[in-house]
Amino acid sequence: MSLPRILLDCEPLKDRNSGFSHFVVPLAHELIRQNQRYQLYCYVPPAEVGGLGGAGVRYLTQRSFHKYFNPPSYGFRLWHATSQLSWYVPTSPFTKVVLTVHDLNFLHENPDAHTYTRQLAMVRRNIRRADYLVTISDYVRQDILRHADLLGYRPTQPLRYVRRGVEQLAAVPAGHAPAYAPRRPFLFGLGTINAKKNWHVLPALLQGSDYELVIAGSFAESDYVKTIEAAATAAGVADRVRLLTRISEADKSWYLTHCVAYLQPSLAEGFGLPVVEAMQLGKPVFLSRLTSLPEVGGAAAYYFDNFEPAHLRQALAEGLARHSPARAEAARAHAGQYSWAQAAADYLAVYEELLAT
What we know:
Largest sheet: 7 strands, parallel
CATH superfamily of the largest domain: Glycogen Phosphorylase B
Oligomer: single chain
Structural class: alpha/beta
CATH class of the largest domain: Alpha Beta
Radius of gyration: 21 Å
Distance between the termini: 20 Å
């Protein structure tokens, strides 16, 4: 008797540096390792066929026209769409769909009307098609419930929070130095350079200190880069603020290992992967109290109650003064909760529950 066929949408592998890819790859590896009940397929771009291993997994090749003519799905009992913005959700009424929702940031970050309309339409389509919804934080689960009517969520749809995993941060290679190495103690922030990340409030935090500020990430909004630079000039610290784009994994590890503190003042976050990576090293982490960040950081993080320069400086000084070996160990223990082995086991339980109905 053949095993039920299930499929994991790994289309985000088209960009191995993307946040969605950092979710899909380790989840796929753990599902392949743990799975004993299903014939597992991974839906991947052509260049990634075989890229997740050969044993225990088969592949369905993604094609660009699948956006308009859905990929073949009648042979699958279950299809796991790994992003709320996925184009690739099957139309076959015989295929059960699990949908992972990472965030609903477009509801909170005031995008332009075109972006808002496009993302809302995509999310509504996928939520309506889904038989089971999974979120990567409890904040996002609550966000779906708060906006159920807008999103087309039905109370009869199962909705569950599964804590995502976070891979152990790679050690800095021996002798490695980044292309830019700060000349003084520095604060570090990592993530897309756009308005929702709220980076422009941080340069004023440098006033009265000798710290540098290093912010690394893709430049998603060129105008916002200018906003950060203008804030640094206005604060008189332009020579101590450095914006970097598309750093390597080795560079990321170097900055997280050597920084005085990690900062994430975001207005909207579905999760916040670098927060956990910094905590793995026992670093003091300073976060906004908005959206999912208090859940991710927990009691082991320090928080900005507002973004006024004086408060930012006070919160940083008080947090650094409080940070001790015991607090560092608490941060490492908190980060240890984010296990891919547990996440995969939880998803397999979701699959089993859905296919039993």
